[in-house]
Amino acid sequence: MKRFLTIISVIIILVLIAGESSAIPAFARKYNMSCKVCHAPFPKVKPYGEDFAANGFQLPGKEPPRYAKKTGDDLLLLMRELPLALRFELFGEYENNRVVDPDFRTPYILKLMSGGNIFKDISYYFYFFFSERGKVAGIEDAFIMFNNVFSDNVDFDFYAGQFQVSDPLFKRELRLEQEDYEIYTSTPGKSKINLKYDRGFIFTYGAPTKTDLVFEVINGNGIETVDLFDEDKYKNYMFRASQDVAKFMRVGGFGYYGKELPDTIDNEMFMAGADMTLGNDKIELNAQYVYRSDTNPEMLAVKPRERVITQGGFAEVIISPQGDNSRWIGTLLYNIVDSDLPALDYKSYTAGLNYLLARNLRIAGEYTYIQNTKTSKVSLGIISAF
C-alpha cells in the first residue's frame, strides 16, 4: 500500500509539471508550421518528415526570405539565427528487482539540438547531451550532409560524420518506447562492433522505382575511443536495400561486414538482416530480424573452432486511432536476442500508452517484463521538445 501511494504521488507530480510547459521546436519555428507536419507523435517521423530530413532539412520553394542574411557574396549563405532546440525528458520508475524504488529519473535526458543549411544543398545536424541517464554523454549525432550531389534530378546524397549504423534500418532515437531495440545494442564478448554509434560516411541513392540503396563505410569500434578515433587498420562496411512493394508495405534487407584488431588478436564478423514496415497512419507494424556471426568475439589467443552466433530482432506495433490527429497513442514492443554467449540472451515484452498534452509535450507510461530475469519495470514520464 505504501509503495502504491508513492507511485500515485509520482504520477500527480509529473502531471502538474507537464501542465506548465509549452514549446516549439527549431524547424517548426523556421517554417511557421506545426510539429504535426513532420511528426505523429514526436519524435516519430511521418513520411513528409523523412523527405524533409533527406532533402537536407529544407523545403524547396518555401525557404523564408529572411532566413539568411544578404551578404552580397553568392558563395556565402549565412543564417540570421542559429536554429536551436532542446529535448527534455523526466521519468519516475519502479522495478521489482531493485532495492531503491521508486526511482526519480530527472533529468533522464536533456539535449541541445541544431540543424540547418550551410550552403545550397549542404546541411548539418548535431545534438549534445547535457545529461543522459545521469551523466554528460557528449555528442552523439553530428554530421554534414551533401544533398543531390550530382544534380537536382538524381537523388544521391552523402553524409560525413558521426551517426548510428542502424539509422537506415530503424532509428533508435525516434522510437516512442524507453525500452530499446535490444538486438541493435547487443555486442558479443569483447567486440566493439554493433549497430549503435560510429564514425564514417553514408552514401544514399533513391531510385525512380522507389528503391532506396544505402552504403556505409565506418571505423567499426564505436565512439567511446581515446586519442585515435579508429583503433585498428580496418574499416567496416554495410549495405542496405529497401523497396516499397505497396502503399502500405515496405521491405528491406542489409548486410554488414567488419573486422577488428584491438591488440594482436582479431575478430571477423558479418551480419545480415531483413525488415518490414506494414500499415498506415492509424496502425503500423515494424519488424526486424538480425543474424550475426563472429570468429573470435572474446579475443582469445587461440581462435575458437566454431563461430559464435547471435541472432534476434524485434516487432513493434504503434496504434494511433485518429491518425496524426491522435492524442492517445499505444505501443507494443517485443525483443528477443538468442546467442551462443548466454550473457546476451534477452527476451522482453513492452506495452506503452502515450498522451499528447501538446504537439511537443507527451506523457508516456510504459510497462516492460524481461523474461530472462523475471524483471518488471513500470515508468511514467514527460517528453518535451522546444
Description:
- The longest helix has 17 residues, at 2-18.
- Strand 3 and strand 4 form a beta hairpin.
- The protein is mainly beta.
- It has a 16-stranded antiparallel beta barrel with strand order 3-4-5-6-7-8-9-10-11-12-13-14-15-16-17-18. It has a two-stranded antiparallel ribbon with strand order 1-2.
- 9% of the residues lie in helices and 48% in strands.
Topology record:
Layout: H1 2-18, H2 26-31, H3 47-54, E1 68-69, E2 78-79, E3 85-95, E4 103-119, E5 122-132, E6 138-146, E7 155-164, H4 182-185, E8 197-206, E9 211-218, E10 236-246, E11 249-260, E12 267-279, E13 283-294, E14 308-319, E15 328-339, E16 346-358, E17 361-370, E18 375-385
Antiparallel strand pairs: 1-2, 3-4, 3-18, 4-5, 5-6, 6-7, 7-8, 8-9, 9-10, 10-11, 11-12, 12-13, 13-14, 14-15, 15-16, 16-17, 17-18
Rg, alpha carbons: 22 Å
What order do the helices and strands follow? HHHEEEEEEEHEEEEEEEEEEE
- Beta percentage is over 45%
Q: Mean pLDDT score, rounded?
A: 88
By DSSP, the count of extended strands is 18
Q: State the helicity in percent bands.
A: under 10%
Query: Could you give a short account of the major beta sheet?
Result: 16 strands, antiparallel, barrel
Our measurement of the CA-to-CA distance between the termini, rounded to an integer number of angstroms, reads: 38 Å
| Low-confidence sequence ranges | 1-24
Silhouette? globular
The number of distinct helices, counting runs of at least 4 residues, comes to 4
Major β-sheet strand ordering: 3-4-5-6-7-8-9-10-11-12-13-14-15-16-17-18
Structural class of the helices, strands and pairings?
mainly beta
